[in-house]
Fold this sequence. Notes:
CATH superfamily of the domain at 132-185: DnaJ domain
Pfam family, one: DnaJ
Protein name: DnaJ domain-containing protein
Number of strands: 0
CATH class of the domain at 132-185: Mainly Alpha
Transmembrane segments: 12-45
Radius of gyration: 30 Å
Domain J: 134-186
CATH topology of the domain at 132-185: Helix Hairpins
Keywords: Membrane, Transmembrane, Transmembrane helix
Shape: elongated
Structural class: mainly alpha
Number of helices: 7
Amino acid sequence: MQYDGLTKGIAVVFGGLTVVLTAVGLVINPAVLFLALMFGLSTYFMYYHLSGKMAASLYERVERQAAQNTGNARRGGFGAGPREEWEPPRDGRRARRSQASQGGQRRRQRQRRQTAGDRQRRQRAQSSGPSPAEAYRRLGLDPDADQSSIKRAYREKVKEVHPDTDSGSEREFKQVQAAYETLTDD
Length: 186
């Protein structure tokens, strides 16, 4: 989980407050014991969450409900049924380690897909979009213009040709967008 360290820190602080408030409640004022109880409960739930037991319990309930709903499918029930590939975490550390490795694999796969998609998008833009010379001409720029002047010219031109304005048209707007996409690295 992304905020494990933060949650652990807060749990430690709440645990410390529980101990201090319990001592104060026993020595000075028993009404403070109520606050100690609240901090103690908060500490327990944070521990329960960090240990992975909360997620396992939740998923077990979901699996049971899905199995019941699958059994009721013939009688009008619904549900996807149990997920065979999911395995509940055995302890918090192992679950986090396996999730982290799975997250890394997923991230690498996503990056590969994005890279391939970027290449395809660039090829489509190059094949179907205007040439760089046409793009500079549509934006009213010199071929040696830098990225900031391209962006500035694009914004001005879009304001003029946007379909929501009185003098704008959708065709011109799309042409300006295509010109900007041809000239930028984004």
